[in-house]
Amino acid sequence: MNRVLVTGGAGFIESHIVEELLQQNFEVIVIDNFSTGNRMNIEKLPIKLFYHDITKESIIDFIVSLQPDYIIHQAAQVSVSESVQNPLFDENVNIKGSLHVIDAAIKCSVKKIVFASSAAVYGNPVTLPVQINHSTNPESPYGISKLTVEQYLQMSNKLYKLPYSILRYSNVYGPRQDAKGEGGVVAIFSDRLTKHMSPVIYGDGEQTRDFIYVKDVAKANVKALFVKDNICVNVSSCQSVSINELFQMMRDAAKSDVIAIHQEDRPGDIRHSILSNKETKELLNWEPLINLSHGLNETIQYYGKKRKMPLLHN
Q1: What pLDDT does residue 311 have?
Q2: What are phi and psi of 55, to 5 degrees?
Q3: Angle at the Cα of 64 (from 63 to 68), degrees rounded to 5?
Q4: Which of 142, 164, 169, 173 is catalytic?
Q5: Any idea where the NAD-dependent epimerase/dehydratase domain is (predicted)?
Q6: 70: annotated active-site residue
Q7: pTM for the whole thing?
Q8: CATH homologous superfamily of 173-209+239-307
Q9: Phi (first) and psi of residue 31, to 5 degrees
């Protein structure tokens, strides 16, 4: 049985990846420092769970002792705004921490390391949808850190023959996303709507995003383990929706009459983003299966149950 190590495995996306791996009959090991991860996401799953921090140099020998066949490296500082406020912390987790994981992967001679990158590496797109060969010009320290790790992986392949798959995520959403720690707009809106409180929309709300459901992302990660070549692909729906449209869809799903509050734009935020997934479909034999309307309903219902309170009804 192939052994897969998932870094940050108690987190939002990661816990769904763990479930997908188990469904595919992998042996799963999780490392997490629980800075944002939630033990409840994985506590009932048949896995090996270890408390550890990727920013500590000791993680290298620890990973080597586990002898994984594959590594899915997800552990990260994921907030663009946090990276702007504290770029040194972002660098420590996303670059230094990733280098520790990469070093361990080389020493273990893993069959593949899958890395969670981001649309943030592109910066403000010149053309839409963004193709994988689009120029990279990050607008935030977060985007810089993700692009830097991509380059370390490419160099590690040249120098040490480390096989890699890089997945550039669009905006991932779904059940278990933390409205505070991981801060996705869908999670924040869901949290506020189920509390019957007004969410904040930054700017005019006409900025657009490409939302991809978390279970589709999980499937892409597992498929990326077995791609023969070293790849870099977008994981996206390739569909665009404005934040205003998103909020209206979520209001409808929650049967809510809450009104959003508008505030000034945030530094580092990108105006428009939609990622092409053509190569992803071909290389991974993958397709996003959950449309936005269905995914938002699932997410709203999750938050409603989490609150243990009924949603508003007309």
Answers
A1: 45
A2: -80, -10
A3: 75
A4: 142
A5: 4-226
A6: no
A7: 0.94
A8: UDP-galactose 4-epimerase, domain 1 (3.90.25.10)
A9: -115, 130
